[in-house]
Amino acid sequence: MDEKIDRSRRDAVLGGAVLAGTAALLVDGQARAAGASARSWDRSYSGGQLGRTPLLPGEPGRDYVPSVTPGGSTLPWRVVDGAKIYHLVAGEVEHEFAPGLKAKCWGYNGSVHGPTLEAVEGDHVRVYVTNKLPEPTTVHWHGVYLPNGMDGVGGLTQRVIQPGETFKYEWTFRQSGTLMYHPHHDEMTQMALGMMGMIVVHPRRPPAGYQVDRDFVILLSEWRIKPGTQRPDPIEMTDFNVLTMNGKVFPATTPLVSRLGERVRVRFGNLSAMDHHPIHLHGHYFKIVATDGGSIPTSAQWPESTVLVPTGSTRDIEFVSDAAGDWPLHCHMTHHVMNQMGHGVPNMIGVKSGSLDKNVGSLVPGYMTMGQEGMGSMGEMSMAVPPNSIPMVGGHGPYGYITMGGMFTLLKVREHLDGYDDPGFYKAAPGTVAELAKPADAKRDGIPL
C-alpha cells in the first residue's frame, strides 16, 4: 500500500510539473510566435497596396541583362507616355515540334509558345490582346500582382474577349521574378493547343551579386498528338506523347550556350496539363534561387543537380558554367525523354519472334519485329512511321545515335564563344573520352576480358 501511495504521489508531482512546464512552453511559444510574426512575416501577400507610382521604363543593357528564350522570342514593346506597350495576337498556328511532326495549334503572335514578355519592376505596362481564334478567350497573368479586374478570369473578373475583339490590360509591375501567362477561359482546350508564355520581370535595383552573364527562359509543356494526326488532343489526361521545351522536342530543341566561367541563370516554367518535371543538369550543380513567389534569400538557397518544377510553377536556378563540354539538360522522368512513336506499343522485351517476321511480312511487306532486346534502336533504324509522326528517340551525335527525345536539350560550354549561336558538338581532348578497354589495362587492374 505504501509503495502504491508513494508511486501515486510521485506521478502526481511529475504530472503537475509536466503540466506547468507545458503551460510555460505554450506561453513562451505564443510570445515567440507573436514576436516572430511581428518581426519576420511579410507585410503583404499581394504585392502591397495598388497605386504604386510607375518608374521610368527599364531599358535593356542599362537596367537589366536581357533574357533569351532558346528557340523562341521576346515580345517587342515601345514606350507611349511613359508606359511600355505590348501586343499579343491569339490565333491558329502551324507549329513544327521537330522535322517530321507538324500540328495545327493555337498560340500567340504566330508562334508556339507565345513570346516572352520582359519588363522591369516599376514599369507601367499596357498589353493589348487581339483574339483571332474561333472561340472567346482571355489572358491570365499567372503570379502577377495587379488589380482584380486585370486578372483575366473569364466570367469572374472580366467578360471574355470575343473573336475579332481587342482588349487592353494595364498595370504597374510591383514585383520581380519569373511568371507566366495563359488563358483562363476554356483553358483545358486552349492550353492543350499551345496558348501559354513566360514573363520575366527584372529587379529595378538588383542586390549585390544578382547580375548574371546569361539569362535563359524555358517553358515546359506536354501534348497528346496521335500518330498520323495534325491536331493536339485537349481531352487527354494521362498519356502525353510529345514533351516539349519551348515548344520543341529533341533533336529540335535549341541548346543553351555559355562561355567557360560565366554565371548562368535558367528560368523554368511549367504549364503542363498534368505532370511535374524533375529537370536534371549534367556536369554541374546549381543553386535554386527563386520560385514564382519571389527570390530565395542566399542563406536559404540549396545546392542541387535536379530541380522539381511543379505544374503551374516556376523555378530559377543559377550556376557557374565551369566545365567545358556538351551537357544534357532534361526531364528525369524516363517517359518524358521519348517521342511520339514510343507510346501505345506492346512490350516485346524477351520475345522470341521466330518466323513472325516472315509470316507477317507476306501480308505487310517490310514488316520487322522490334523491341525484343530494348528500344534504343527504334530511331536509328529509320523505319517507316505514319505520316506526320516521329520515332520515339532523338538524333545523331558525334559518337553515334543519341537515344533521347522529348524534354531534352544541351548546355554547351566553350572556352571561346561569341553570342548565342550553336557552336556544334564538343571536341574532347585525347584521352578524356570513355573507350573500349585495352587488354593490357584490364590485366593490370585484375579485370577479366
Tell me what the structure shows.
- This protein is an alpha+beta fold and 449 residues long.
- The chain is built from four helices and 23 strands.
- Residues 1-37 have low confidence and may be disordered.
Précis, in short:
This protein has 4 helices and 23 strands.
List the defining traits of the structure above:
449 residues; alpha+beta; seven-stranded mixed β-sheet; five-stranded mixed β-sheet; 13% helix; globular; disordered N terminus
Number of strands: 23
Broad shape: globular
Model regions low in confidence, pLDDT < 50 over at least 5 residues: 1-37
Largest sheet: 7 strands, mixed
The proportion of strand residues reads 25-35%
Order of helices and strands: HEEEEEEEEHEEEEEEEEEEEEHEEEH
What distance lies between the first and last C-alpha atoms, to the nearest angstrom? Answer: 81 Å
Helix-strand makeup class: alpha+beta
* Relative helix content: 10-25%
Q: Report mean pLDDT, rounded to a whole number.
A: 87
| Alpha carbon gyration radius | 28 Å
Count of individual helical segments = 4
Layout of strands and helices, then pairs:
Blueprint: H1 2-40, E1 78-80, E2 83-98, E3 101-108, E4 117-120, E5 124-131, E6 140-142, E7 166-172, E8 177-182, H2 187-192, E9 197-202, E10 214-223, E11 242-245, E12 256-259, E13 263-270, E14 277-281, E15 286-291, E16 294-295, E17 303-304, E18 306-309, E19 313-320, E20 325-331, H3 356-361, E21 395-397, E22 400-402, E23 408-414, H4 439-444
Parallel strand pairs: 2-5, 4-9, 10-13, 12-23
Antiparallel strand pairs: 1-2, 2-3, 5-7, 6-8, 8-9, 10-11, 13-19, 14-18, 14-20, 15-16, 15-17, 15-19, 20-23, 21-22
